[in-house]
Amino acid sequence: MKFRVERDVLAEAVTWVARGLPARPPVPVLAGVLLEASDEGTITLSAFDYEVSAKVTVVADVAESGTVLVLGRLLADISRNLPARPIDVSSEGNKLQLVCGSSRFSLLMMPSADYPSLPVAPNSSGVLQGDVFTQAVAQVAIAADKGDTLPILTGVRMEIEGDKITLLATDRYRLAMRELTWKPASADASHLALIPARTLSDTARALGASGSVEMALGGSAGGDGLIGFEAGQRRTTTRLLDGEYPKVTSIFPTSVDTESVIETSELVEAVKRVALVAERNTPVRLRFSEGQVTIEAGTGDDAQASEAVEAVLTGPEIEIAFNPQFLLDGLGAVGTAYSRLSFTQPSRPAVLTGQAEADGQPDESYRYVLMPVRFAS
Hints:
Largest sheet: 12 strands, antiparallel
CATH superfamily of the largest domain: DNA Polymerase III, subunit A, domain 2
């Protein structure tokens, strides 16, 4: 193998492919990135850990085709730190040589014959708008469980009916749901998938900068139990989670007694300041009254803080308490100038939505449900 490639091109490709490599792989070859140089003037880089696969093809000046396997994280670190000049890459014996200006690196090659074959992605099911995909996943994935007590809750539930996609995630303390549209390959598309939230987030961030993202779901040859994403020359697959996702949509309140509209950035700053005195797992209390909401934390002999923020109230006054970080996560996800909080009772879930104008209508394509915390009165 022998090729020349621009430093930035190689660094970006290796970094993207190697981003999900396991720190402690079950077998050594899974720490590697597979490089395949083609006579057509391209190199393809691949990584696979039996759960997630990543593949990218970039242009290079190929003098001699071939395939090698080297440590992925090491190659990524080296390529990012080389000077901004073309890199000459060649295999000599059991070593891969990288020469860039006066910098020279020699990497031990691993047996590429032992590397597993990458899964075949299903056929394309449709196309998503890149920026919408990235935002939607970020809005929902924050609510997925970060632990592994209930593995099924570490996923994002994706339901597809025609041109509508509904993403949903919960960790039992909050629930996030986002509805968006896409261009399905088939007008009667119908799919249900449970995707690992962390992998989906990484994928959305990496591919969403592209104008459009192709998504592949279904049971084509070799693709059963997988979901695939493709944007430009980047392709990735991940294995879906197994199991029945709990029927959590019943958590959404069917009626509203009190609503309050607040400027999002003002509420965020106030909650952040007041939460400084909140001990771990201690809630912040929100007291909604005519014209304002008062945020408080701390009781008794502990440090205490309070701050009032202007708010429009519709309905009876209410006092309710939330985990401050969960509340901040939701406020950070709505992505609008104003936030609307809807309540029934202090002991019942509250719904957070966003809206562009103070007196406008809420955008209910994204809803964030927050379970209140009991507090001593």
